[in-house]
Every structure is written in C-alpha cells, then in structure tokens.
C-alpha cells in the first residue's frame, strides 16, 4: 500500500485510492492514506460515561486506541438480524492520532480521480452531515465521510478553536489577504473564526482546489498583480474535484502564480508523506488541528 501512496502523491496527479466499506448495506469510502491496517474485530473494554459513539478501547501492539462505531456516529439503527461475521476494524491515523473504526464489511480498494467526487446534494450538505463527497460508481453511490468531524463530535477540544490563540491587535495581519481551500463546512467556519481572532480578517474561502485555481487564474487574466491581491494560500489535501497536492502543483507550474506561498494544512501530514508537499512546492505543512503553528507560519512567510 505504501508504494502506491508514494506514486499517487509524488506526482500530484489528482488521484486517490479509497477503501470501500459498508454499514448496514450503505456504501462508504475512506482515503487509503488514512488507513494503517484492516483487522478482525477484537474485544473492547467499555469506558464508563464515555461518548455514545465509542464502543470502548482496544490494545493494539502495545498502544491503547479508541474504537468508534460508525453505525452509531452516522445515526443508523442497529439491525438485530445482521450477520456480524464480516465485521472489520479499520485502524486509521490522521490529525496525528490513531483511531479504530468498526465497520460491517470491507469490499475493495478503488482508484479514482478527485474530479469524480461530487459535492453532496443539499440533502447531505447540512452542517450536521458527516458526508463530504459522493462517488457514482456504476450503479452504486459511495459516500465519502468526514472522519475529522466525527472525531470533533466525540471530542470538541480536539478541533480548531479560537480559544487556542490570544487576540492580537496587529495592523499588518489585518492588511494581508489569505485564500483558504477547505472542503469541510465545519472546518471552514472554525478556521474563519480562529484566523479572525488571530488578526487575519481578509480571508476568501473555497471548498475545493478547482474553484481556488479558477479564481486565481481569473485574476491573472484580468491583469491583476497576484501578490498584491493574495499574499498566501492555505490548502487542505483531501477535497472533491481537485486535491491540495494537485492544486499546489498547478500553481507552481503557472509562472504568474508560482510566487504565491502555499501552506498545506491537513490531517494527512505524517513523517512518511511530508516530503511529497515539499517536492510539489509547498513552503510549509502543518498537521490539523495545530492552529497556533499555522498562524506562526503565516506570520513567517508574509509579515
């Protein structure tokens, strides 16, 4: 799996591989880059008074990890007659933490382009929804889940919060214009609130790399001085239509946009993957939810 990950991220091809799994016959997907391994379920130790999504904890290779029921997290009713013989634990790592998700079946690995992932309809696009993308694969609909939001629902303190920063009156920050590319409505809101507390008030948000790239290219076509219009781009990696790595590559290939500093702010920043962003031209990479480090890096590159 690691070799395939390296090929996909080395070139910024706007492709990904997903692991397709089921909960009560509904089909979902998770980015392979979030997955460490898939194992058979083992007994969990319940924790009194814990969040209802948590089944308990399990020890795996000397580490104690939380086990989350995706059935509960998605608000699905438990099927009493369901055959549990195909159940699996998906061991994940993102936001610098390991979490185990209990699913009902793991089907296959599917390689697709990000531009095949559509924005959810209004039915799924509510702030309370855990669905961030839809893949139409033959006669099936695969729903991509917002695992970061699920974990924030369980532990709000693990998310991005203005309280993690001290309000600073800085006229230089107020003058700077930032573009933030993030597909999660919840994280766009939290980033907006937090960066505003930090003093960065001129922020333009885009929900995928394609929209951000189109906007920047339109500024070039209008004859605008890009570095006066925008001082820095912050981008997630996982986004429908165009991911953050491909966006970074496209910006750096455009002579009119290549001078824009780009910071990748993602749950997928690990030691194994860090140098991929460097190769593509990002000036820095910060793991979510370390907002204080993100603000420090913004200051470093544009103040």
UniProtKB/TrEMBL annotation:
Domain (Response regulatory) ranges: 177-303
Positions carrying 4-aspartylphosphate: 236
InterPro entries (alphabetical): Chemotax_regulator_CheV, CheW-like_dom_sf, CheW-lke_dom, CheY-like_superfamily, Sig_transdc_resp-reg_receiver
The keyword DNA-binding belongs to this UniProt entry's keyword annotation: no
Keywords: Phosphoprotein
Domain of life from the UniProt record: Bacteria
SMART domains: CheW (SM00260), REC (SM00448)
GO biological process: chemotaxis; phosphorelay signal transduction system
Domain CheW-like positions: 15-156
Transmembrane segments: none
SUPFAM superfamilies: CheW-like, CheY-like
Gene3D superfamilies for the chain: 3.40.50.2300, CheA-289, Domain 4, SH3 Domains
Designated name of the protein: Chemotaxis protein CheV
């Amino acid at each position: 799996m690691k070799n395939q990950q390296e090929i996909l991220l080395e070139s910024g091809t706007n492709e990904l591989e997903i692991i397709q799994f089921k909960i009560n016959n509904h089909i979902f997907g998770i980015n392979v880059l979030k997955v460490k391994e898939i194992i058979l379920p083992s007994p969990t130790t319940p924790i009194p008074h814990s969040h209802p999504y948590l089944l308990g904890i399990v020890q795996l290779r000397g580490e104690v990890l939380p086990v989350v029921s995706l059935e509960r997290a998605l608000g699905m009713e438990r099927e009493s007659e369901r055959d549990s013989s195909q159940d699996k634990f998906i061991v994940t790592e993102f936001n610098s933490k390991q979490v185990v998700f209990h699913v009902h079946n793991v089907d296959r690995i599917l390689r697709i382009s990000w531009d095949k992932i559509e924005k959810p309809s209004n039915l799924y696009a509510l702030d309370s929804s855990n669905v961030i993308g839809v893949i139409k694969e033959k006669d099936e609909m695969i729903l991509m889940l917002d695992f970061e939001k699920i974990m924030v629902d369980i532990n709000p303190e693990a998310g991005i919060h203005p309280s993690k920063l001290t309000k600073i009156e800085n006229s230089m920050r107020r003058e700077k214009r930032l573009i933030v590319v993030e597909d999660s409505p919840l994280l766009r809101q939290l980033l907006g609130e937090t960066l505003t507390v930090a003093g960065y008030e001129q922020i333009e948000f885009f929900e995928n790399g394609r929209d951000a790239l189109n906007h920047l290219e339109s500024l070039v076509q209008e004859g605008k001085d890009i570095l006066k219009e925008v001082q820095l781009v912050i981008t997630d990696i996982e986004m429908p239509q165009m991911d953050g790595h491909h966006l970074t590559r496209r910006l750096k290939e455009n002579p009119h946009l290549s001078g824009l500093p780009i910071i990748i702010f993602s749950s997928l920043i690990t030691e194994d993957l860090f140098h991929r962003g460097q190769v593509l031209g990002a000036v820095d990479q910060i793991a979510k939810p370390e907002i204080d480090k993100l603000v420090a890096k913004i200051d470093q590159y544009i103040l």
